[in-house]
Amino acid sequence: MRLVFDLDFDAKRIRGRFVLGANYAGGAGFAHGGIIAVVLDEAMGKISKLTEEKAVTAELNVVYRKPVPVDREIVVEGWQEEEKGRNRFRVGEIRDAEGNLLARGTARFVAIDKEHFERVRAEQQKV
Fold it and tell me: In what side-by-side order are the strands of the sheet with 101-112?
């Protein structure tokens, strides 16, 4: 899955438009719930690109409102609502082309020092 998001530095939001495809279908031919969670987590994670900081998901909550189609375009948007210390509280939404809310995620991300992030990545590559 390759998700590309547009960064809106003025509005401090990210947005992407995707057709997921049949490979991501679960029961009844709609997007699998795990895929929906991945898309929302990815959207909220991309918000870090607005500030060039590294942050990792610490908590993720998803509310599934309506079935997410795999054969039609969806609009995914994310933004940050609050910052407390190293904690970043973010929101992601999936809507259909008509603007109907299909799923909403909220998450707490934790900002990570760039040097620590690179050190851990290097250690993982040795394994």
Answer: 6-8, 13-18, 74-84, 87-96, 101-112, 54-64
Give the SS3 label for residue 63: strand
The H-or-E segment that residue 6 falls in is strand 6-8
d(CA 53, CA 125): 21
**How many helices and strands, by DSSP H and E, does the chain display?**
2, 6
Specify the number of domains making up the chain: 1
Is the model's pLDDT at 127 over the cut of 80?
Answer: no
CA atoms within 13 A on the CB side of 24: 20
Task: Provide the whole-model pTM.
Answer: 0.90
Catalytic residue positions?
Answer: 41
Residue 34 lies in a domain: yes
